[in-house]
């Protein structure tokens, strides 16, 4: 059978912005003769995520991430349907997911490496397994719960950067549900700010590209900032930390503003910000969702309930076609998405 796949064509290089030209579409023939334990899957949805920028480098800089190899098929989060199976745990029609799904229209995969999903958890929105009821939702929920120290009745103010993105849009809503009295989002366009306030129930939003973050935060967070869910790092985060109260908590989730730069993770802070953290006893702890997978099952169940009961609203930006996965990745890295960036491969 003829299938299409995406391979890594070139690397952006140190300090380089990724470009769709770093990816190449190929047509290959796939022999669907399965060996014991294998399944043939048809890809439904693929996820593009910021961590993939590290996989484009020869050295990812992280021991839990392997680099993508040149001219090899690229992989990441995916959802698909089993079309043929020689794995006893899976049958035709099962919907499955994996963190190592090839960017390919059909693929032969090892059945044991796939996770069968329960469609009722997402009321038929299968792409949610890559977002709100998948690793993104887990990152937001467990990040807030494990590192945020949000306490009902404590009159806390939370700020979220990257707030209109996949993790950020969920983290802010979870902060509100968990008891923060004020949740402020920082993001890169007026359209995104509007969506945060009007659709997702954020108290206020700041456009970091056009507004003075410090002045706006002083205005809309009169009691200072207690919890900061940090997705972006850099100048945005330094401005937020400056407004933080004594004993506050920074959830160090990601630092996307630095991912095209050749700096260690987490990137170093300015002397001034380090001094603020120290003098105000602000805890700034790195959060890695993969370290909390023992809590994933219960957390996914909770996320599913929150989404189905519309206590959490889910935003997605969906692009169609395997030929557009690289385009979608680069667009997400530049802020082209509202909510989770998804690529739909087939119906
Ligand atoms: P998003 O959906 O948030 O997409 C990325 C967003 O980052 C863009 O939409 C863009 O929005 C914003 N952005 C890009 N460049 C900059 C910049 N220079 N300054 C400020 N914002 C920028 O992606 P995810 O929700 O998947 O990931 C969000 C963060 O969470 C990332 O840092 C990621 O690495 C991290 N993460 C961490 C995990 C963990 O276990 N710790 C797990 C999963 C994700 P805008 O228009 O606002 O600029």
Automatic annotation (TrEMBL):
* Pfam families per UniProt: ADH_N_2, ADH_zinc_N
Q: Under which EC number(s) is this enzyme classified? A: 1.3.1.48
Against CDD domains, the record matches this protein to: PTGR2
Localization per Swiss-Prot or TrEMBL: Cytoplasm
Write the record's keywords in alphabetical order, separated by commas: Cytoplasm, Lipid metabolism, NADP, Oxidoreductase
Q: Which catalysed reactions does the entry list for this protein? A: 13,14-dihydro-15-oxo-prostaglandin E2 + NADP(+) = 15-oxoprostaglandin E2 + NADPH + H(+); 13,14-dihydro-15-oxo-prostaglandin E1 + NADP(+) = 15-oxoprostaglandin E1 + NADPH + H(+); 13,14-dihydro-15-oxo-prostaglandin F1alpha + NADP(+) = 15-oxoprostaglandin F1alpha + NADPH + H(+); 13,14-dihydro-15-oxo-prostaglandin E2 + NAD(+) = 15-oxoprostaglandin E2 + NADH + H(+)
- Provide the residue span(s) of the region labelled Disordered: 1-22
Task: Extract the PANTHER family matched here.
Answer: PROSTAGLANDIN REDUCTASE, PROSTAGLANDIN REDUCTASE 2
Quaternary assembly? Monomer.
* Protein family: Belongs to the NADP-dependent oxidoreductase L4BD family.
Q: Which named protein is this?
A: Prostaglandin reductase 2
Q: Which gene encodes it?
A: PTGR2
């Amino acid at each position: 059978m003829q299938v299409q796949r995406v391979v890594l064509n070139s690397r952006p290089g140190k300090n380089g912005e990724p470009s769709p030209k770093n990816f190449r579409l190929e047509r290959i023939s796939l022999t669907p003769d399965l060996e014991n334990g294998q399944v043939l899957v048809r890809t439904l949805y693929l996820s593009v995520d910021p961590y993939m920028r590290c996989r484009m480098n020869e050295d990812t800089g992280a021991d839990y991430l392997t680099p993508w190899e040149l001219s090899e098929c690229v992989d990441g989060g995916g959802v698909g349907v089993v079309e043929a199976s020689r794995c006893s745990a899976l049958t035709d029609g099962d919907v499955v997911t994996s963190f190592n799904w090839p960017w390919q229209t059909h693929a032969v995969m090892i059945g044991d490496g796939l996770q069968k999903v329960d469609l009722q958890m997402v009321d038929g929105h299968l792409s949610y397994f890559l977002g709100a009821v998948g690793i993104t939702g887990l990152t937001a929920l467990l990040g807030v719960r494990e590192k945020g120290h949000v306490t009902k009745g404590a009159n806390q103010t939370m700020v979220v950067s990257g707030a209109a993105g996949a993790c950020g849009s969920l983290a802010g809503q979870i902060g509100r549900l968990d008891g923060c009295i004020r949740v402020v989002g920082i993001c890169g366009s007026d359209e995104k700010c509007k969506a945060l306030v009007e659709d997702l129930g954020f108290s206020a939003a700041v456009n970091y590209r056009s507004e003075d973050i410090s002045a706006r935060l002083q205005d809309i967070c009169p009691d200072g900032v207690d919890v900061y869910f940090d997705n972006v790092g850099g100048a945005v985060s330094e401005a937020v930390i400056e407004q933080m109260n004594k004993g506050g908590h920074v959830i160090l989730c990601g630092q996307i503003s630095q991912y095209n730069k050749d700096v260690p993770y987490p990137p170093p802070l300015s002397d001034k910000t380090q001094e603020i953290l120290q003098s105000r006893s602000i805890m700034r702890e790195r959060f890695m969702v993969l370290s909390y997978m023992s809590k994933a099952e219960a957390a996914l169940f909770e996320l599913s309930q929150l989404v189905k009961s519309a206590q959490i609203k889910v935003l997605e930006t969906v692009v169609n076609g395997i030929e557009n996965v690289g385009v979608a990745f680069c667009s997400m890295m530049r802020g082209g998405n509202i909510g989770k960036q998804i690529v739909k491969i087939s119906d």
